[in-house]
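dude i think i finally got it to work??
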Amino acid sequence: MAQMLTSTAQTSKPFRHAVAILGLLVATTPISSFGQSDLRNTFPGRRIGGGTRGECSARLVANLVPANSIFAPGAGNTIGILEGPTAQPRPLQLVFKPAGEQSAASTKRNLPATEAGVTLITIPAIRRATIWETAYQCDGGEAAGSVMELDFVESASPPAQSLLVPEAKSEDQQAAASLAKLRPFCGKTVPSRDVAETFGLGDAITQEWPQQLPVRCL
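look at this
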């Protein structure tokens, strides 16, 4: 019996060591090495940005994507942004970065300050999982939004954060179809309530919102 216990103890150390190494490898494996299904289950996105302090920081900005904030734009290659009302509009900055690659270069796009409305943007085809973040460029006193920094851990005005993926599911197709229906209204207006309800953002509409929203297409 003593010999058996000694043998077990001798073999358990390398076994525990191997398990520890395996756990470390899993923990440090880039997110891009997992399948899209894993990304859909684990991505901690938030499609509505904005904080609670300051007029700029607290202004609503929302990526027009499904409720889980994961979206495959499909053949239309169109993404949409909803901006809420404000007395002092500020420019927007969009950041696109390959998911799970800390050293990968990000692509940034600045949009001019505008009133409340919907903006449709045509982007290059999505070939790999890409993190998309949208935030206002507020003055320094209100925090510029985390898109002005190297990472997106903390900010007085957290960005709207979504994951763009190449392979569509039914909810992606519905969102893409809704964006496509807005295209004919470029340069025109659409009812605020219709946009909010179509994308499940009805709770965001308050009495401060205009009844009609302009549709801007880029």
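The chain has five helices and eleven strands.
im so relieved honestly
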